[in-house]
């Protein structure tokens, strides 16, 4: 299991898919607001002049020297809803990210976001 204490060290690590293929570079980590545990990461992908950030769940991820390996295939990650490198995920788009991976989306009782960037 990934420890939250290590969260700052993951930024700029290479993100690999379940088969060991490079997806991109980790940009940010998002925690579940109800547990404060790492839930998703954004991965910088695309051409050097056209980067974007896509989301990937961290459940089952493993960390090694210079890399984070996720349990999802590269093509699934690359087709996830994305944001610009200077953008923030709009609250109304959170559910689409969870549904892309077949995950349940559970906003707070008063409609609070499920994800918060760390």
From TrEMBL:
Residues 7-70 form the PRC-barrel domain. It comes from the Bacteria. This is PRC-barrel domain-containing protein. It comes from Actinomadura yumaensis. The lineage of its organism: Bacteria, Bacillati, Actinomycetota, Actinomycetes, Streptosporangiales.
